Amino acid sequence: MDFGLSDDQKLLEETARGFLADKVSIDRIRALREAEVWNDRDIWKELGALGLTGILVPEEYGGSGLPLLEAALVAQAMGFAAAPTPFLTSAIMAPVALRTVGGDAVAPWLSGLATGDLQFGVAVTELWSVREEAGVRLAGGKLTGKSMMAWDAMGADFILVALSADTFAVVRGDASGLVRERLLTIDATRCSAELVFEGVEAEAIFEGSQEAITRMMEAGRIALAADSLGACESMVGQAVAYAMERKQFNRVIGSFQAVKHMCAEMIADLEPARSLLWYAAHSFDTLPAEAPLMALHVLAHVSEIGHEIASVSTQVHGGTGWTDEQNLHFWFKRLGVARHQLAGPEWLREQAAIVQGLAA
Amino acid sequence: MDLEFGEKYEDFRSEVRSFLKEHKPDFGKNAGLSRDRRGPLIDWLTKQLEHGYWGRTIPSEYGGFGAQPDLLETVIMDEEFNRANVTRGFPAQGPSMLVPTLLEYGTEEQKKAWIGRTMRGETLWCQGYSEPGAGSDLASLQTAATEDGDDFIINGQKIWTSTADRADMCFLLVRTEPDAPKHKGISYVLVPMDTAGIEVQPLRTMSGKLGENSFNQVFFTDVRVPKTNVVAGRGLGWTVANTTLKHERNSLNANPEGTLFKVRDLMQRETINGVAAMESPVYRDRLMKLQGRVLTMKTHGMRMLTCSLKGESPGVAGLVSKLQNCQINFDLATLALDVLGELGVLYDHTKYERARAYWQTHSMFSLGLIIGGGTAQIQKNIISERGLGMPREPKPAQGK
Predict the structure, then answer these.
(1) Does A266 lie in the same domain as A178?
(2) Is B34 within 8 Å of B163 (Cβ atoms)?
(3) Full-model pTM
(4) Is there a single domain that holds both residue A77 and residue A200?
(5) Residue A16 is part of which domain span?
(6) Range of lowest pLDDT (B12-26, B73-87, B266-280, B366-380)
(7) What CATH number does the domain containing A253 carry?
(8) Measured between CA atoms, how close is B207 to chain A, in angstroms?
(9) Domains and CATH numbers, chain B
(10) Model confidence over B193-244: pLDDT tens digits?
């Protein structure tokens, strides 16, 4: 019985956090926001050199082939740093889908992802939410229709497009007939796009791939929960530090119980959620019967505590927390987007009821 | 990550299972904690002691089984007894609080006198800590013990004293050094409940006749106790009490997964307008939200267990379980009561009453646990001050 992180896992976490602390300064995040660029290729190449872009890519394709728990620790570091990288899409979701289908077609993509040369966008929103008549279908072997909120698709080399619960396509980012338009969100650290397909030729279409899509969504949801938990950690840390330093009525505000209790409540939510995340990530590789339920619950739960922590940590900062200058809002907005990025908590919980046979 | 217990422990689990299969007790309606009804319980505890499922790590010279401490064995015994729906041990505070304290601080004589009897249920203890004027600020307690030769004479009042009406003994906090600072003037003393001058009055709680809880107030008027009944030494009572409170906090920490399953079953069984409550998306969402919280605390328990096994400090993560689990239990009861609706408020054998008003009892009892053993607000002080290093509330200027 050993429920915790190994020394290797702790080292990996430290390495990822150290690298990101070094590379992703708040100035860099601000510059990205002003320039409206997306998914910095330089950081991605360096992450590739560290072996982190290929963390889930099997060794035969040049990756490290590590379990999801390791990848979740890196995702958590991404959220902690509010890092503008396509880690969720290009290091988690696309590799899981591609390695599950396997075969010759996916080999160059997996190799390119492992080195950090390639970036993949992911267009999956319509699997759970069709808005504005979105949806992509196959007509005469070509893709037609549109997908909204396609994550990291703007600058991506390839895009993984879910056509249904059991079919997905891979298309080139610059494919003829594909129009990409950035959909700006509140979150400057992540990038979303609308994709309009007018008879686009796919590089490959994978039919009968329900397992690949299911596993991709499970891994994506666990990793997104990790990212949000990292963002929560950062916000709680900033709030506690501020409360120990800011003085009113001639005392640090952290000596007032009203403020202290806000911090205690946040940490009482944060720490157990870390345990849930470890278990969910561990279940993905070793407890296949539990993974579907755990992936739904971990994201729904972290979305809920994330909402609370985003709000309370801002309130601990008082008026300062509401300014642009204080920086806290970058994490607030990252959590706000994450709450709906791979389905909102109500939808996730209804699915949790369904997988347990408690709802039809 | 390794969630397996391993072969050695699975063998131990099988032993526990076959013991329970063979010896599972059937107490019948007349067994209880009072002296005249305690016989069946004493027999059962003695049998558990012989097989090492009770008092397992207590040295055999004090009446225990004498095994080396092994946390996983404890976890397995708890799991298997729960699964068989058999209470492991004894529903009173002697074994869980007094015995560990005596093992740490008692004299050889005190250990020999009390530990075995307590574990077998022959001596039933109550805890005399809280007073009407000393709740969260326990160290301000005023029950006084004044010297008279080889004895102390005790005067004062205690409250929230579970099982005082049936207890044989009380472990009591009294002020022996009135001139010392408040934390240094307290002593921990063992008092027979049949001593002249002790009066026990039942304290009726909000759950009224719903439960079988039995809180009391205990009044001490010129109660004479020999000085040799002090544990650890005069003025050291606060240190000793903190040891017992630590044991209490650990025991108030049960994971509410079993309760979650009960609510789930209730929602599948109860119908409203001819439709099962589980069909309601609103109730279902509340259940799923609670399941997320329950799973969180379940996995957190595994992490805390691992820290204990490795002897690592869990840091602030180790301070949050009581706060979370007690609130989850209360919220589960709230959902069950909302599902039961107008039938959920019926009680005392009224027509249409559900399960002897179990969920009302559970709701009120779990609210009591949010307060008891350190209120939620005290827990938050502990989390922020000890866990996050935030400053204590400045002390107001003190007059005397």
Answers:
(1) no
(2) no
(3) 0.92
(4) no
(5) 7-118
(6) B73-87
(7) 1.20.140.10
(8) 28
(9) 7-89 (no CATH), 125-237 (2.40.110.10), 252-387 (1.20.140.10)
(10) 999 999 999 888 887 765 455 789 999 999 999 999 999 999 999 999 887 6
Instruction: Tell me whether A302 touches chain B (CB under 8 Å).
Output: no
* Residues A349 and A298: beta-carbon distance below 8 Å: no
Q: Looking at beta carbons, which residues of chain A come within 8 Å of B307?
A: 4
Boundary residue ending a domain (A95, A118, A141): A118
Could you tell me if A196 and A273 are in contact, meaning their C-beta atoms sit under 8 angstroms apart? Answer: no
Interface residue B311 vs chain A (CB under 8 A): no
Q: Which residue has the higher pLDDT, B93 or B245?
A: B93
Pairing of strands A120-123, A158-164: parallel
Widest pairwise Cα distance in chain A = 74
8 Å CB contact of A301 and B296: yes
Dihedral of CA A190/A194/A200/A204: which sign? positive
For residue range A179-231, what is the model confidence (pLDDT) as tens digits? Answer: 999 999 999 899 999 999 999 999 999 999 999 999 999 999 999 999 999 99
B385 reaches A (C-beta below 8 A)? yes
Count of domains for chain A = 3
Does A330 reside within a domain? yes
Q: Which positions in chain B touch A257 (Cβ < 8 Å)? A: 377, 380-381, 393
Is residue A2, in this structure, part of any structural domain at all? no
Residues A201 and A244 in one domain: no
Same domain (yes/no): A336, A257 = yes
Q: How far lies A158's CA from each of A53, A172, A282, B236, in Å?
A: 15, 4, 29, 71
Q: Quick one: which of B203, B104, B197 has its CA closest to B143?
A: B197
Are residues A257 and B291, on separate chains, in Cβ contact within 8 Å? no
Q: CATH number for the domain including A196?
A: 2.40.110.10
CA A82 to chain centre: 11
CA distance B333 to B288: 14
Residue B222 dihedral angles phi and psi, to the nearest 5°: 50, 50
Separation CA B241–CA A259 (nearest Å): 29
**Across the interface, which of B264, B380, B388 has its CB nearest the CB of A240?**
B388
In a domain, A1, yes or no: no
Task: Work out the minimum CA distance from A340 to partner chain B, whole angstroms.
Answer: 17
Per-residue model confidence as pLDDT tens digits over B15-26: 999 999 999 888
A194 forms bridges with which residues in the sheet? Answer: A181
DSSP count for chain B of H helices, then E strands: 12, 10
3-state SS assignment for residue A101? helix
